[in-house]
Design goal:
Elements lengths: L10 H12 L2 H4 L1 H9 L4 H25 L6 H9 L1 H24 L2 H7 L7 H18 L1 H26 L5 H4 L10 H8 L19 H30 L2 H6 L11 H9 L1 H27 L1 H8 L18 H17 L2 H28 L16 H14 L4 H22 L8 H24 L5 E6 L4 H16 L5 E8 L11 E4 L4 H4 L23 H5 L3 E8 L2 H11 L4 E5 L13 H8 L3 E6 L8 E6 L6 H14 L2 E8 L5 H17 L4 E7 L3 H9 L4 E5 L4 H7 L2 H7 L4 E6 L8 H12 L1
Parallel strand pairs: 1-2, 1-5, 2-4, 5-6, 7-8, 7-10, 8-9, 10-11
Antiparallel strand pairs: 3-4, 6-11
Protein name: Amino acid transporter/nucleotide-binding universal stress UspA family protein
InterPro entries: AA-permease/SLC12A_dom, APC_superfamily
GO cellular component, one term: membrane
Length: about 775
């Protein structure tokens, strides 16, 4: 959308922004610190490894930048790909961390100033504040001026570093660089994690993508080119520096701090380049740190700008000045934050937190690309595409996680704190103002629904017969037995399955017995013969399985039912054993409300649900003599195909209409509602009876479902485990059944596995809430 921002940045200016954001503390401060960390010259390899590990994120960011050349960079990609929550984390975190880095760069020249002029160290804070104000003004006046200034600074710095390399190579002491590329060096990963932050600026090009000329070509070239150039520069400069400076001796002499911090480049230049060369290197160091501050401010200011444009920050931040064509408030706030950090905060320690968070951002960038590639984004059409997808991104995420374990506890805790603050900000400010979701979540939801549709089609297309055991106990009322039998006969009718009514009679435990169970075929009980509402089916032969009067109309509906009496000492195990031996496909059992309050022990329902080798239907009987409407509800996730099959079979036999009930949160995104509606539409094509679809917008699922299910004659929903876990975490399905007045059938599919906590949370987030 038009924003008023000018596309003023060409290839070299764009590369200068990235190089300026990278070459600063990475080459002028960190080599000595990393040398101590790795305990040797393998610090050179650490810089090389870090550059290689960042390459996947550079490729991913390049691709997404050519598809979405908008200011905001990694925030935009993560927000579009993974949703507003992760986008907020990326945006807020990047903003703070770039501000921290900018502030650190402004005071990071202290060792070099002291090196050439020891008496001016006390004025460093006023000098740093003056530079911060200067860079803020430059960025407010013109992005092009900021880019041009960056180009000049980086150009001078690269020339001086080149001069340092050429002049220093003849003076390298071979014994000091031996093992520079030794993978077996101790602490190599820790050193790699330390210098990782040196390359954070590579994707900052994307933060100003909306102001880049010909972004489809310029951004990938600038991003990859700047990374390759900076990596080569780091490796060469660090190799020469440690070859000239005897770091352990310099630490012992007090020229460097015990942790290796200090003007290592100044020391090296003083040994080989003379006063003029030393002055040039010190000036380059100051320019490099100044360029880092300038690039950090330029990039950081675009995050609140982009977030405001997406409704994730107050709208004032997206205002572009009519006079300067820059986001003045965003730049001014970022500059002000840097000034406050310079004056009041221990920037050096806080800035180390940026390493951990930048690694997380790189991981999110790689993940976001996968979200776009696999998600439902019709207009995602990048000019440049990342090579070796998805292995490049998987490697980037895996290596990032590995390096993240090496950053140390305090930096990791700092990144976690910024993340927590971002999450709190999201829920307090962002969530009430946005209903978008990421491409990955939309894509996953579509994939899940498509997979569920395929499973449903396969089940309905199998035409498998279903044999049903109606398990009646001594405590089952006659009216409930009738309704359970009716449901069992409806379920088996369409597939020509057999129905067995097993009356399980509990007998006292007898000593010195193995608790044997006996099964006897019996006549139809009186409750079945007196049931005038049982279905009549003249097409089935009785097969001699039940002795019933031929002149009873009701009895003709029972001609295919096998009545059994099973005497047993333990009803639950007997039901499971009988269903297993007879290879039943379903067990129909009365739902026992009293078991819902049992925290310990195992009731009849729980035992059958856990051990039955087939599907289980728990019936909550409130009178069922036919149906005009059957409600099929899902609390979260997709509909299990077996639940749909049961509802469809009963509706077919009773002539009822099905109503698919599903809830989504209030204010749900159009993308989510559309995916759920398309899923329902596909189900309606698979089901064999007339089916209505009701998608309910409510934050109280049970209340919403019960309100719409109340008018139905039968509710079909899902079983849930009883016992301690259900008592502690709640059973929404049971609450739904208890909130309606109609008969309810809770279905557990055959061979079901209770979904784990993570799976339930994911499905709940994807479809329900």
């Amino acid at each position: 959308m038009p924003t008023g921002l000018k596309r003023d940045l060409g290839l070299f200016s764009t590369m200068a922004i990235a190089i300026g954001a990278m070459v600063g503390s990475g080459v002028f401060i960190l080599p000595g610190v990393a040398f101590v960390t790795v305990d040797g010259p393998a610090v050179v390899l650490a810089f090389l490894l870090a550059g290689v590990l960042i390459l996947p994120a550079a490729f991913s960011a390049s691709e997404m930048a050519t598809a979405m050349p908008e200011d905001g960079g990694s925030y935009v990609y993560v927000e579009r790909g993974m949703g507003p929550l992760l986008g907020t984390i990326a945006g807020v975190g990047n903003w703070f961390m770039l501000s921290f880095k900018g502030a650190l760069a402004l005071v990071g020249g202290v060792p070099y100033l002291v090196f050439v002029a020891p008496g001016i160290a006390e004025y460093i804070i006023p000098f740093a504040v003056t530079l911060a104000v200067f860079f803020t003004v430059i960025n407010v006046v013109s992005t092009k001026s900021a880019g041009s200034l960056q180009f000049v600074i980086v150009g001078v710095m690269v020339v001086v570093l080149g001069y340092f390399i050429v002049g220093g190579v003849p003076n390298i002491a071979p014994e000091q660089t031996a093992g520079a590329f030794n993978f077996g060096s101790g602490g190599l990963l820790a050193a790699t994690a330390l210098v990782f932050i040196s390359y954070a600026g590579v994707i900052k090009i994307a933060a100003v993508a909306e102001e880049v000329k010909d972004p489809g070509k310029t951004i990938p070239r600038a991003m990859i080119g700047s990374l390759v150039l900076t990596t080569a520069l780091y490796v060469a400069v660090v190799y020469v520096a440690i070859g000239i400076v005897d770091i352990p001796a310099a630490i012992e002499a007090g020229e460097l701090q015990p942790d290796g911090e200090g003007p290592i480049m100044g020391l090296a230049a003083a040994q080989v380049l003379g006063p003029i060369g030393t002055g040039a290197v010190v000036a380059a160091a100051l320019l490099a740190l100044a360029s880092t501050a300038n690039a950090g401010l330029l990039s950081a200011s675009r995050f609140p700008f982009a977030m405001a444009r997406d409704g994730l920050a107050p709208p004032a931040f997206e205002t572009v000045s009519d006079r300067f064509n820059t986001p003045v408030l965003s730049i001014s706030l970022s500059g002000g934050i840097i000034v406050l950090m310079v004056v009041f905060l221990p920037i050096d320690q806080v800035a180390k937190f940026g390493s951990a968070f930048q690694i997380l951002v790189f991981i999110l960038v790689n993940l976001a690309l996968i979200g776009f590639r696999e998600g439902a984004v019709d207009d995602y059409d990048p000019v440049f595409t990342s090579p070796l997808y998805p292995w490049m991104q998987i490697f980037g995420m895996a290596s990032g996680l590995l390096v993240l374990t090496q950053v140390g506890l305090v930096p990791f805790a700092g990144a976690a704190l910024i993340t927590a603050v971002s999450v709190v900000y999201f829920y307090l400010y962002v969530r009430p103002r946005t209903d978008r979701e990421g491409a990955a979540r939309t894509g996953v939801r579509q994939n899940v629904s498509e997979a569920a549709i395929e499973r449903t089609k396969e089940l309905f297309g199998e035409q498998q017969r279903y044999d049903t055991l109606v398990a009646v106990t001594d405590e089952t009322a006659d009216e409930t037995s009738v309704d359970m039998l009716r449901i069992g006969m409806d379920l088996s009718a369409l597939r020509q399955g057999d129905v067995t009514v097993g009356t399980f009679t509990e007998v006292p435990h007898r000593a010195f017995t193995a608790g044997d169970t006996t099964s006897t075929r019996v006549d139809a009980p009186e409750w079945a013969l007196n049931a005038s509402t049982l279905p009549v089916d003249d097409s089935r032969p009785d097969g001699g399985v039940a002795q019933v009067p031929d002149d009873a109309e009701t009895a003709r509906g029972l001609s295919s039912v096998d009545f059994r009496e099973i005497r047993t000492e333990e009803v639950g195990p007997a039901i499971v054993e009988y269903a297993s031996f007879e290879e039943e496909d379903f067990v129909v059992l009365e739902r026992r409300v009293e078991e819902l309050h049992e925290l310990y022990g195992e009731g009849l329902n729980e035992h059958v649900l856990k051990n039955a080798p087939c599907g289980v239907l728990l019936v909550e009987d409130r009178g069922f003599d036919g149906a005009d409407e059957i409600a099929v509800a899902t609390n979260s996730g997709t509909y299990d195909p077996v639940k749909l099959l049961v509802a469809d079979a009963i509706a077919e036999e009773t002539g009822a209409t099905l109503s698919l009930l599903q809830t989504v949160p209030e204010g749900v995104s159009d993308e989510r509602r559309q995916v759920v509606q398309e899923y329902h539409d596909e189900l309606r094509r698979v089901l064999t009876v007339t089916t209505d679809s009701r998608i309910l917008e409510t934050d109280d699922r049970i209340e919403g479902l019960s309100r719409f299910a109340e008018s139905a004659d039968l509710l079909v929903t899902t079983t849930e485990r009883r016992g301690l876990r259900g008592a502690v975490f709640g059973r929404p399905g049971d609450r739904l059944v208890d909130s309606v007045d109609c008969t309810a059938v809770m279905v557990q599919p055959p061979d079901t596995q209770q979904s784990g906590f993570i799976q339930r949370v994911l499905l709940d987030r994807l479809f329900g809430g």
